[in-house]
Amino acid sequence: MKLKIETGPDNPILRKKSVKIAKFDKKLKKFLREMAEIMLAKDGVGLAAPQVGVNERAVILNLKIAPKKWQTVALVNPEILDASLELICAEEGCLSLPKIWGEVERFENVTLKFWDENGTPRILELEGINARAAQHEIDHLDGILFIDRAKKVREDK
Ligand code: CO
Predict the structure, then answer these.
(1) Which position among 41, 45, 74, 107 has the lowest Cβ density within 10 Å, counted as fewest Cβ atoms?
(2) Are 147 and 100 in contact (CB under 8 A)?
(3) Hey, which residues does 76 pair with through a beta bridge?
């Protein structure tokens, strides 16, 4: 399968609520690997399955783990279990909304529950830019785009 990025604020695929993944098989692993490849190729900090035309609950994050070091992680059926009281406003963009940026308020820290590609349940605590990316990508699974939450949107023609 050759993946391509779905774009546009009114794209029905991006606006649909995605379904939970029930089968952890070779096909899922291959799909997650291809998602990671396209995310890295496009310099994204995260990618959600609907962005490549698949309305299933899978997300890839490119976590920043050191000043110049990133690590890719695949999240299946991710949920936010807990979030900090602190909200942080910062600028976001999205591979599905090229040339649009917006100031979005997000929780500073989140605790996630998800399943890894083998179907093992996991817990992950994230902060800062990583927590922001997770919230942005999980929104995609519910058909929510950052422009829906943005306080200020900027468009480069
Ligand atoms: Co996005």
Answers:
(1) 41
(2) yes
(3) 58, 115
Distance in angstroms (rounded) separating the CA atoms of residues 39 and 47: 6
What would the pLDDT profile of 30-42 be if each residue is shown by its tens digit? 999 999 999 999 9
Name the pLDDT band for 132 (thresholds 50, 70, 90).
very high
H or E stretch including 139?
helix 128-141
If you count DSSP H runs as helices and E runs as strands, how many of each does the chain have, helices first?
4, 8
Ligand 1 centre distance from Cα of residue 22 (Å): 24
Radius of gyration of the chain (CA): 15
Half-sphere exposure of 63 (CA within 13 A, CB side): 14
Catalytic site includes residue 56: no
How many whole angstroms from 86 Cα to the centroid of ligand 1? Answer: 22
156 vs 139: CA distance, rounded Å: 23
Q: Which residue, 23, 128, 138, is CA-closest to 75?
A: 138
